[in-house]
């Protein structure tokens, strides 16, 4: 490209840029005036709103700056508060029985369903009894045979005793008759024992439940040949049922004093793993273990539950609450009223002038799922803030509301109405 064309292109570019700049710098006056008016008005509005915001954030401002903060308050109440110790427990059956046959043979029938409740004395299985029935019949027959021989021997002895006085029977023969009777009597006794033994073996072919419980999963089927080492099923007694749990050793003296000196049994409650609801409230402390586990520093306890609805199941983990005493006239407040500060727990206490003060408190325990017991810092009837604490500081003016009460909608102030009218007139003139 020649030097001439390079200079021409540069000149054209300068002209184009100059034209664009001229149009940008020389807009119509009306548009400029409107823009200037809006800019100045916006700046003023922004300045005014900033001042208003600043005034609202300052405690001594005007208008709505001193508007009370709506909060929910509840009174401090007195009530009898049970004191519980909590722990994680394991449900254990009252009795666990593994059913093994006491004689060997072929399994004829299974008379229970898995998971079924069985009662003590129910026939839950039957082994082929024919061999044992035959042995029992033989023992009874042998007993009857020897009883007949004994009757004959006794009759012979009685007849010869009448003849021995007249010298018709020798004394030696009489000794033989007596010994024969004694021997047959002993034989009959042995036969009776053999018959009872055979009867016991025959009865063993009927497998009977020794407890009231629930049948587990069976291990044999009808037709299987079983021996005395064969496990048929496990029965579990769950009514009543045990819960075993552990507590730290520092609670041992408290529990022992309550257990030994209490006029009534110590109440134990079993809850689900989330503490959402109680599974069984019929429990009581039954025994305290006689030693402390040196590896964990805990001691074991066992509670018994009636378990009327079978809500507790063997092997289940539950949360346990053991009531050791009851505090009469304890001060109780909602748990959400307690706040955590650098110096400990505190609450916002409502004053008579409708302001709040930060009141330190001491929490001694939980009361149910939603309240706590206070030992120091409050008196009965004191109103504490339970909702809205994040907007408060000591000395804040508040509007006290009852639980569930909603504050009334605020009315527009005169300044807000004037500002709204001015904004509307400006928009009208601009259009």
Explain what the structure shows.
It is a single chain. With 431 residues, the chain is α+β, with helices and mostly antiparallel strands. It has a domain at 3-53. The protein is built from six helices and 20 strands. The strands form four sheets. Strands 2-9-12-11-10-13 form a six-stranded antiparallel beta barrel. The protein starts with a helix and ends with a helix.
What kind of sheet is the major sheet?
Answer: 6 strands, antiparallel, barrel
Question: Which structural class is indicated by helix and strand composition?
Answer: alpha+beta
Strand order of the largest sheet: 2-9-12-11-10-13
The shape is: elongated
Q: Element order, helices and strands?
A: HHEEEEEHHEEEEHEEEEEEEEEEEH
How much helix, percentage-wise, in residues? 25-40%
- Alpha-carbon Rg, integer: 49 Å
Summed up, the helix count is 6
**Mean pLDDT score, rounded?**
83
- What's the number of extended β-strand segments? 20
Oligomer: single chain
Distance between the termini: 55 Å
Strand content: 25-35%
Low-pLDDT segments = 29-63
